[in-house]
Each structure stands twice: as structure tokens, then as C-alpha cells.
Design a protein that fits this description.
It contains two helices and 17 strands. It is mainly beta. The protein has one domain: Sandwich (Jelly Rolls). The protein has a 17-stranded mixed beta sheet that branches.
């Protein structure tokens, strides 16, 4: 039985319903597309990561069409990007955290012992050893509070609203809309209900932890 990192196991149990071994020491990883399926592009150029990692430069923009991608970020964080989705890197000289901007579609982030940040209508800081999902529809009407749906499957996150910071823990979700200011409620959700994106990401986590 492998030695496990407790907080990472908690997050994986919440997401997958099974106990998965986690690395006792998370190696620092450089920015790269570690795996891809279907058509994806980096900075406007089509790439294929099925035979090996594709390095990513600072300020990268990754888009998927009928494909999906697994990105490794600084500090060991892994991002799973769904089909017809896009995300870009923000080169923030004032922070050591990986910081991204969700442009459209779906993404799941797995923070394996390091913090990360995502801009999706509002800034969300993802704390260590958690699993988090973003679903962003930038064409949604601005009179609803669910332009960017954010869910915490495991771990803790801080959401920076107009004048306060909201804390979300496992099993809580919030619909982000910068036009709503602080007037955004949070809700419970069933972490056991998963779609194809969740299942694919979980399979990739299992493969990564089995290495």
C-alpha cells in the first residue's frame, strides 16, 4: 500500500468515491500539455500531445474543439480542459501562483499541494489539495447569477467578490457574475452526480497517481 498524502486523498475520495493513492511528494512540473484528445490548439497553432508533452510559454492560450486536454502547471497543479473550451495564462509578475482566465467552456483543476488562481467573472483562489470545476458561458444573459458556475468537489476556495471574500468548501457551488457585486448566494450540490467531463478527469487522475 502506497503512502498517501491525506488531504489529496480526501479530495479524490470526494470526487471519485474511491480511495486513490497520491504521491507523497508532488514534483514541481513545468507548464505543458501532458495529454490531448481530438483537435486542440496553442496560441492559434494546432498541436498533438498524444505522443509526448507540448511545452507552454507564459501567456499561453489553449483552445479545444472536439477534443480535450490535460495541462500541467507550476507547482504540480493539473488542469483538465473540456471540449469546445478555452483558457489562457495570465503572467502575473506580482504573484507566484499559477493564474489563469477561463474564456469559455469547462475546466477542472486539481491542486496537488499548491495554490492556483482562476479568473472567471470573479477571481477564485484555489487552495492546496483540492478539486474544483468551472463552467463558463460568456454569452449568457447578464441578468442571471450563473454566468460562470464554480463547484468545489474537494478542498477550499476563496472567491473575491466586489467588496468581500467568500469561502467555499467541499459540496458547495456558486454562480459568478461580476455585475452582481456581493449579492451572490452559494448552494449545496451532490458531489456524487458526475457527467462525462467529471468521469474523464477522474480517469486521468487515476492514471497520473498510478505512475
Amino acid at each position: 500500500m502506497k503512502r498517501v498524502l491525506g488531504s489529496a486523498v480526501v479530495a479524490l475520495v470526494a470526487f471519485g468515491g474511491v480511495e486513490l493513492p497520491a504521491q507523497s511528494v508532488v514534483p514541481p512540473e513545468t507548464r505543458a500539455i501532458a495529454f490531448s484528445e481530438g483537435r486542440i490548439s496553442v496560441d492559434g497553432q494546432t498541436v498533438d500531445a498524444t505522443t509526448g508533452p507540448v511545452p507552454l510559454r507564459k501567456g499561453f492560450l489553449v483552445r479545444t474543439e472536439d477534443g480535450r486536454a490535460e495541462l500541467t502547471l507550476d507547482g504540480g497543479t493539473v488542469l483538465f480542459l473540456g471540449s469546445h473550451s478555452s483558457v489562457r495564462d495570465i503572467d502575473d509578475r506580482f504573484s507566484n501562483l499559477p493564474r489563469l482566465e477561463m474564456l469559455n467552456g469547462s475546466a477542472i483543476l486539481w491542486t496537488r499541494g499548491a495554490q492556483a488562481a482562476m479568473d472567471c467573472e470573479d477571481r477564485v483562489t484555489l487552495l492546496e489539495s483540492g478539486i474544483f470545476r468551472f463552467d463558463f458561458n460568456p454569452s449568457a444573459p447578464r441578468n442571471i447569477d450563473d454566468v460562470c458556475s464554480f463547484k468545489v468537489f474537494g478542498g477550499t476556495a476563496w472567491v473575491s467578490l466586489a467588496s468581500l471574500r467568500a469561502s467555499l468548501v467541499e459540496g458547495r457551488r456558486i454562480g459568478l457574475n461580476r455585475h452582481c457585486g456581493d449579492m451572490i448566494p452559494t448552494y449545496d450540490f451532490d458531489i456524487g452526480v458526475r457527467d462525462d467531463m467529471d468521469r474523464w478527469s477522474l480517469d486521468r487522475m487515476r492514471l497520473r497517481d498510478a505512475r
